[in-house]
Amino acid sequence: MRASNGAATSSCCSITAPTVPTSSWRVNRRCWSSMKASCCAATANSASASRPPCASAGSSSSSAAKLHMSESPARELLVLFADISGSTAIYEQLGDAAAVELIHGLLGRMEEETYFHKGAVIKSIGDELLCTFPDVISALAGATAMQQQAAAVEGPGGRKLALRIGMHYGPALEDRGDVFGDAVNVAARVVELARPRQILITDSCFDKIPLLGRGRIRAIDRMSVRGRSAETTILEVMWQRGRSITTVVPPIQRTSEDAGSVVLHYGGRTFTISPQGNPFLIGRDASCQLVVATTMASRQHASIGSRRGKFILADSSTNGTFVVPEGGQPIHLRREEFVLQGSGWISFGEQPRAEGEGSVRYEFRPAVRKP
Question: CA–CA separation, 325 vs 72, rounded Å?
């Protein structure tokens, strides 16, 4: 039997990362640490302002606490993000109570696998787990075990649950149960590239793997990382038995200037999506950039984002998304992606009606290349 050591907790302030999400709740992994740090700083300042002048010992203690993180040396760590894929759809189909039980149960098993493979659970952010491992081999074993745990859990409609896992090996700073630094930022970007049931690693992880252990790893892409002149190679770990391996030569990443833009027309309004920024959300929820007035659409139905010089429409809904390219036939997306080219119509949860009524008109506009 495997024993869990328990998830790491932080006593820095009263704000803690929720272990389970609600159907509409989301936290940006990159903002969580800074939000908590800001809260802690505000709490410390407030306490200092209300303390009488004679309390010099308390002030010294507070100053020492502030200096603690800056004096702590960074060390090489394997940082891993594991995200439960399609959690929004799980909440919509099962309801909050059943979805919380399902996702919380899987997160618990993922934490057990982390501890069993010598890792540490830093925090659970909604439907995502942030972990660290002392070495790459332990992390690969832990990530594979997590994927196997997810594949054994049956979700809505009899579908097995799936994880997206991304990891990076590099310098990180540990402080009071949390972790900061370059390794965290890069790992967060890697997990965004992963598809369901994928384990993606960077070349810094690959370099730490013995030659005999590289047989089921393939290079699939490159990405630019802020502050680095050279691109980072992204590799996939083929953890599933029986999967054949095709070596893929990493394509040269196109710059954001090459991507152009996508223009959407809906309800008399026009939306322009550029390569920069976060994915453009479409759905019934007021938090979406484009709110569609149809009961067949999910609250956060689909998104459009730029990846490797292309604009990708990604469906995350219950009823699916229909795309009708100009002069083409309807394409039904179910948890799938579609590269937007040319022009056409997008319909949410139902077949597009005559003349695009209730649908979104899209146009891809290539970038004007300079001579």
Answer: 55
pLDDT per residue as tens digits for the range 267-299: 899 999 988 766 899 999 888 899 998 889 998
- Do both 75 and 212 map to the same domain? yes
- Kindly report the CATH number assigned to the domain that includes residue 338: 2.60.200.20
CA atoms of 273 and 117, how far apart (whole Å): 42
Q: Residue 176: which of 29, 36, 5 has the closest Cα?
A: 36
Amino acid at 24: S
Determine the residue type at 161. L
Surface-to-core class of residue 355, CB atoms within 10 Å of its CB (0-12 exposed, 13-18 middle, 19+ buried): exposed
Evaluate the CA torsion angle 28, 31, 33, 35 in order and state its sign. Answer: negative
Give me the residues paired with residue 223 across strands: 232
- Please give the backbone phi and psi of residue 124, each rounded to the nearest 5 degrees, phi first: -110, 120
Q: Same domain for 172 and 299?
A: no
Q: What is the domain extent for residue 311?
A: 256-365
Q: Which two tokens stand for residue 32?
A: 């969580």
Does some domain include residue 70? yes
Tens digits of per-residue pLDDT, 52-105? 443 334 444 444 444 444 456 788 999 999 999 888 888 888 888 888 889 999
